[in-house]
Amino acid sequence: MKASTTSAGKCEVSFTINGEPKTVFVYPMERLLDVLRGQLTLTGAKEGCGEGECGSCSVLMDSVLVNSCLVPVLQASGTKIITIEGLAEDSRLHPLQTAFLDCGGAQCGICTPGMILAASHLLHKRPEPTLDDIREALSGNLCRCTGYMQIFDAVMQAARHRTAT
Amino acid sequence: MESTDLREYHSVGMSVPRKEGRDKVTGAARYVDDISMPGIVYGATVRSKVARGRIKSIRFGNEVAWDEFVIVTAKDIPGKNHVALIADDQPCLAENIVNHPEEPILLLAHPDRHALPKAVEAVSIEYDPLPAIHSIEESERCSEIIWGSDNTFKTFLIEKGDVDAIWNNADYIVEAEYFTGAQEQLYIENNGIIAAVDAGLGITVWGSLQCPYYVHKALMTLCALPEDKVRVVQTETGGAFGGKEEYPSMIAGHAALLAIKSGHPVKIVYDRLEDMTATTKRHPSRTRHRTAVSKDGKILGGEIEFTIDGGAYTTLSPVVLSRGTIHAGGPYYWPAVRIRGKAVATNAPPNGAFRGFGAPQSLFAMERHMDRIARVLGLSPVEIRRRNFLQPEQTTTTEQTIKEEINLNHLLDRALELSGYESKRARFAIENESAGSKKGMGIAAFLHGAGFTGSGERYLGSVVGIEAHADGRVRVLVSSAEFGQGTNTVLCQIAAETLGLPYEDIEIAQPDTREVPNSGPTVASRTAMIVGKLVQSAAVGLKQTLSGCALLGDTYTRAQFSTACGKYAAARGPLKSYARYESPSGIFWDDEKYRGEAYSAFAWAVYVAEVEVDLTTYSVSVKDFVALQEIGKVLHPVLATGQIAGGVAQAIGFALYEKVNQQNGRMQNGQMTNYIMPTSVDLPPIRVFFEEIGSAHGAYGAKGIGELPMDGPAPAIVNAVEDATSIPFNSIPLLPEDVFEAMTARLEPGNAAIPLAGAR
């Protein structure tokens, strides 16, 4: 068995991922999620629903939280993308990652990368969020394990840590 | 490691870091779809579009280059064409007849996963349709026989005391019928499996699954391979909730068949629509209660009929039915009771395991019924429960004597206090008169048995291993899977505590049937309690081996343990210790009469819900939720709290949001856009509290907790809705349209109130 291979219709798209410039050769309408997970082997972004409901594929594109399953890769051209793999600095966990570990914010872990990126997006905009801010900011990221309570705790803890340092 | 390190190490009862937590928060954890292999190709499934019919023809449309594909049909199956589980009635690929929509018929593989959807569409199958059945009632009527001789997969009968004698002494007889709907597990990671074939080694599958040895057995049967030629490895699993108990055996079979025929590793990962429409759901149920009650509020006895819709094949329905039937009487004392359980066939995809496993269904009915009895008698929901709670030394419906130190009145009192039940209820009764919304409080009291039912654990005979390396590091060997609930962490804590070592010194093996013994399936709230206890025994065995060789004293330091392991390894090779389950003495269970010790321990709980019913939108929102439970020793407070809060959230979905819309047996809303689960803005504060009374049957006194929180929230919420609206809703999910219909029907003049109950 073999597939017919053709590069017709493909183009080069360049962007910065987790601080590194990258150029990929892709169909312009490929989903950013597939390019991340495939060519770039950044499998931290997950596909949960493929229609922008669950938020498991969330990444930050020019500091905006997007569902990468709904972004055609061409739209990412020239942007700065942060995925979960780019959050820890020099193997030191980001305060949100530590807080998720401490508070039980990650159970099965499949929503965790998207959830942490959504939380980091919130803390960037609003360093001292209220509980309602957190609920609102995470409402596009579904978690079936935790009932969200320990995720709220984690975001609160990370916010306190940020304010303290 | 300093030899002067005389510290004592403890980890049980402490919230140590989750073993695989770091990988999960950094994105490094590898789930099945994150794994690739050289030469990998992708598999897809062609499924039935009809509920029941005879396959007439299969045509391959000429818009697809079929020579690029590998095609597998039932004829390619080397062994037996069924998914080995309880009965052998479910084919892996339908051959002549299909019995439900989405039944697998044919498999395709291609190197480009994006080429598959079009190819699946290009296969057209013609059917001779057969009449189909789509409800419990139709199935019972037997106008069409779709399974066996009477559409019945299984029945159970529990009989205690002389039920026929109670009715004449009853001051009241309260009768009602209750319904629960199907529910999707909705793990965020869809099902997925990779299979690869090696001429010498046989078949290996990697996947998202709960029960490696179930898949192992199913593949041996399907592929006609001996035990050592099938290997099953569980990859990081993104949620399961029972939904990855039996169906992975089907997908693994499909991936294996494609791998055998293509010679390539094959990956099958479902998308959300396929996962939701084709795989298992919680069984829809109907429960009928007829209860004799004295005027002072004591249950004299009753009859309960518990019926579940199993879908088209047996799968796990008999076991789900068993648990639901045993839990149907709730945490109450029944002097006499007759409980009939029945699982029937319909032409829908088989329903299956889902957290709670039958108990949430029958307990919904029981706890709604208690409120109904209270209303009929003019007692409060609190008082009716208080007067009927099981006491130590009383017997359950299966005549199991309660030997635990339970105090359900204490649990109830504490839950009432934590929730402010009485004061809020009094306040709402006044405020509801004039407000634009109505508020109410509801209680549910319940129990959940841990481990397999009756003789189940004895039949399983689970084995656990523990090995020590030469450098003193210890590894736990179990087939028990981690899928979020904390298996890895809790079992390592138990090993660490038993060996007196730091938690960091203990690792747990990836579940791989080539590496680990069969510690049983990861189901039935059995892991912490039953498997944990075996880990404890194996760890004790490990210590005894070292001390038996005079390498270790009764007390020792971390360094001395490490030295002892090194010496043992040098002299005798790898150090491993195994423990096998033995049923506790004095346990009696009669499989025929369904009588005796159903579970070695129960967890007990009282939950309180506060709800608000909006009179403009008719939506019900939960404003506060108190979950108080007695679960034996809490091994890890953060994980245990997370289990309960997550279960409560899932059960709020079961009660108020999650409706599976089926048409002709096919789910119509198989997407996250139209099947609605609770989001972060939908949930109340879920306040979790524990009472700890150690159980002799679990590791360090632990009892099972995984399923417990699924049982109570739905009845507590609907009880609260009745408290707010005075309407006795008897069916879930309770959606705004249901509330609207009932409330507006009431407001129209001339409409009688919904009848409450047959009282006499």
What features would you describe in this structure?
Chain A is of the alpha+beta class and 165 residues long. Chain A has five helices and five strands, in the order E-E-H-E-E-E-H-H-H-H. Chain A has two domains: 11-86, Beta-grasp domain (Ubiquitin-like (UB roll)), CATH 3.10.20; 95-164, [2Fe-2S]-binding domain (DNA polymerase, domain 1, Orthogonal Bundle), CATH 1.10.150.120. Chain A is 32% helix and 15% strand. In chain A, strand 3 and strand 4 form a beta hairpin. In chain A, helix 2 (95-103) crosses helix 5 (149-164). Chain A is elongated, with a radius of gyration of 17 Å. The mean pLDDT of chain A is 95. Chain B has 760 residues and is α+β, with helices and mostly antiparallel strands. Among the domains of chain B are: 21-30 and 456-580, 2-Layer Sandwich (Aldehyde Oxidoreductase, domain 4); 38-131 and 185-278, 2-Layer Sandwich (Aldehyde Oxidoreductase, domain 4). Chain B contains 19 helices and 28 strands. In chain B, the strands form seven sheets. A seven-stranded mixed sheet of chain B has the order 3-5-1-12-9-10-11, with helices on both faces. In chain B, a hairpin with a 4-residue loop joins strand 21 (589-590) and strand 22. In chain B, helix 4 (212-223) crosses helix 5, helix 7 (317-327) runs parallel beside helix 8 and helix 13 (487-499) packs parallel to helix 14. Chain B is globular. Mean pLDDT of chain B is 96; it is low at 751-760. Classes of the chains: A alpha+beta (165), B alpha+beta (760). The interface between A and B is large, with 56 and 70 residues.
